[in-house]
Amino acid sequence: MKITVVGAGIVGLATADALVRRGHQVTVLEADRPMGARSAGASRVFRLAHAEPALVEAAHKAQELWEQYSTRAGRPLIGPEGTVVSGPRAHDWARAMAEAGAEHTLGDAPPELLGHAHGPVLTDPHGGALDLAGAGRLLVDAHKSIMRPGRVVDLDELVGDAIVVTAGAGTAELVAPLGIEVPRELCHHVRFSFRPAVPITAIPPTHLDGTPGPELASTYQHRTPEGHWAIGGHLPDQLTSVDHTADEVRRRSYEAITAHVVARIPELEPEPVGELHCLPTAGGADGVHTARVGNVHVLWGENLAKLAPLLGENLADAVESDGVAHAIGTPPDLADHGR
């Protein structure tokens, strides 16, 4: 089959990789640069911990596929440090993990955790820092010959047996003429990276904290391949919409996150040494949504990088069967559709 993949983020590249390994003729189109936009940056948090058992199970399957990627890369792409979830959601996420049969504990925070955690915490021993840049290099190097620069404006201009759209923030506009409704409202999000202020001997776990603070509704942190700590925080939705400029949101994020570091993570220097800006969907939560119209297969969602190898395999399955890829963690009002 001749297949065009639109978008060379981590999910598009994983899809192309799965299709090529199955013997298909694949072309990948990217408007900007591979592993840009929502796939930019060195690292992400990998976790089995989720609010829904289906997402826990999907992450476990993705972990097995990440191990195959790691074998190809010649080194682990997911760190061994584990993930800690604290705050009000810890109990609910622990129930989801128990229902999915995933290993976890609910109790005290591990001593190597950077900063503070209130109340009992959920520890996911299979979580860790995902080397996203390393995974991107693996796939880009493997498939340079099939990658083409090009901004797709009209899917009808593409030819082939199948078209797969994994275009991130550009997906909604691209598939609207097909009658596929993808959330369009975007927001600014900025995370910052910090150097350690003291020697850190044991690798701290990645940490998702849902405890609301004076400025931030929740925070996350993880080690980067450079040995820094990436710290992200979620401002109130009304302060991050694209009605505000990127500079405005960056300033608010900088003030809130540096204050958070000073108050709660004294192990880090208070001044950031790097930052990453992206445009996620406003109000988006963990979940994978899919649709098919004719020979066009579409996938969208939030926090997808950790599931990328699984999503690539699912999309390849859908293309080969002329079906619809699996949605994961999809509420009933956003169920799959295809015609």
CATH topology of the largest domain: FAD/NAD(P)-binding domain
Query: On the 0-100 scale, what is the average pLDDT?
Result: 94
What percentage of the residues does DSSP assign to strands (E)? 15-25%
Q: Order of SSEs, N→C?
A: EHEEHEHEEEHEEHEEEEHEEEHE
Broad shape: globular
The CATH superfamily label of the largest domain reads FAD/NAD(P)-binding domain
Based on the structure, what is the oligomeric state of the protein chains?
single chain
How many domains would you count in the coordinates? 2
Gross CATH architecture of the largest domain: 3-Layer(bba) Sandwich
* Overall SS class: alpha/beta
Integer-rounded radius of gyration: 20 Å
Enumerate the spans where pLDDT stays under 50 for 5 or more consecutive residues. 331-339
Helicity level:
25-40%
- Biggest beta-sheet profile: 8 strands, mixed
Q: Give the neighbour order of strands across the main sheet.
A: 5-6-4-11-12-13-10-14
Please report the number of helical segments. 7
Compute the separation of the termini in Å: 20 Å
Number of strands: 17
Quickly name the level 1 CATH class of the largest domain.
Answer: Alpha Beta
InterPro entries: FAD-dep_OxRdtase (IPR006076), FAD/NAD-bd_sf (IPR036188), MTOX (IPR045170)
Pfam family, one: DAO
Protein name: FAD-dependent oxidoreductase
Keywords: FAD, Flavoprotein, Oxidoreductase
Could you please describe the fold and organization of this structure?
The protein has 339 residues and is α/β, with parallel strands linked by helices. The protein folds into two domains: 2-79 and 131-184 and 285-338, FAD/NAD(P)-binding domain; 83-125 and 187-278, D-Amino Acid Oxidase, Chain A, domain 2. The chain is built from seven helices and 17 strands. It has helices at 10-21, 53-73, 90-100, 132-142, 171-175, 246-264, 308-321; strands at 2-6, 25-30, 43-46, 83-86, 105-107, 121-124, 128-131, 147-149, 162-165, 189-194, 206-209, 219-223, 229-233, 274-278, 287-293, 296-302, 337-338. The strands form three sheets. An eight-stranded mixed β-sheet has the order 5-6-4-11-12-13-10-14, sandwiched between helices. A seven-stranded mixed β-sheet has the order 8-2-1-9-16-15-17, covered by helices on one side. Strands 3-7 form a two-stranded antiparallel sheet. α1 links the parallel β1 and β2 (25-30). α1 crosses α7. The longest helix has 21 residues, at 53-73. The protein is globular. Residues 3-317 form the FAD dependent oxidoreductase domain. It comes from Actinomycetospora endophytica. Its cofactor is FAD. InterPro entries: FAD-dep_OxRdtase, FAD/NAD-bd_sf, MTOX.
